[in-house]
Amino acid sequence: MNVHLLAKAPSFTSLVTVALLVAMLLVGGALYDGFLSLQVLLNLLIDNAFLLVIAIGMGFVILSGGIDLSVGAVLALATMIAAWLLQVAHWPPLAVIAFVLLLGAGFGAGMGAIIHYFRLQPFIVTLAGMFLARGLCYLISIESITIDDPLFVAMSQTQMPFFGGFLSPGALIALGMLGLAIWLAHYSGFGRAVYAIGGNETSAAMMGLAVGRTKVLVYALSSFCAALAGVLFAFYMLSGYGLHAQGTELDAIAAVVIGGTLLTGGYGYVAGALSGVLVLGTIQTLIAFDGTLSSWWTRIVIGGLLFVFCVVQRVMAFGRK
Length: 321
Description:
By secondary structure, the chain is mainly α. The protein contains 14 helices and four strands.
């Protein structure tokens, strides 16, 4: 094994992502007036705060060698539960948020336990979790539930000054979550165990690492992030709906991979989730500024980028052997 290539693989793909982001911003600035204005750039964070939080959780899952297809459905379920508790049960908003986050973490921990103790593939277990969470949304209501709670409305409308522009509270929460995730990944025993399990689960077990506990915590963290993203999405949309965030799990996977994390697990940077999400957001903004292209071009471009990054990762994986 070429250790030098092994060490450089994630950093190379992360640098490529940053270079791609800069190039797209420069192209947008050259083609469209106002594209590089501070508020347009800050809007990338505001509009994609929920996706960044989901991508953070997905990053840990992929680093551990797994996958989580349930995150978009968990987000939608979180919005539905929050909306119902606020509008029908009249719970205090802080109690609603705490309950939704705990429920999300418990849902993920359950999937993680099933994956580890029953030796099932994460794809199948989280696919079942996706169907379960979507189905539970429609047990609550088949219609959208509007949220008019004062705290949620205030969080939706508040603009936090930021160097002449503004950020939403949701964007600041997402950035704070990113900082916490970076610390967890690179400066805690939990993070080191995640990397070890993703690199080689058998070796990690032989080293005495708590493989089962770490897996359960990884999926608990992913679903916690999805539930938190649901809270942020509820702030953003002021509604709960079973159709919210359809396909978001695929966007999160794309953001993590484009951000430099290897799909095979064990290599990558949690911080790459930010650059990956910003790349996706920049593509959407370029298409919006153009005004003549269908929104489906966003999916086409993202699909092409994801294909290219997967091929690059595969080539580099062969280079390490």
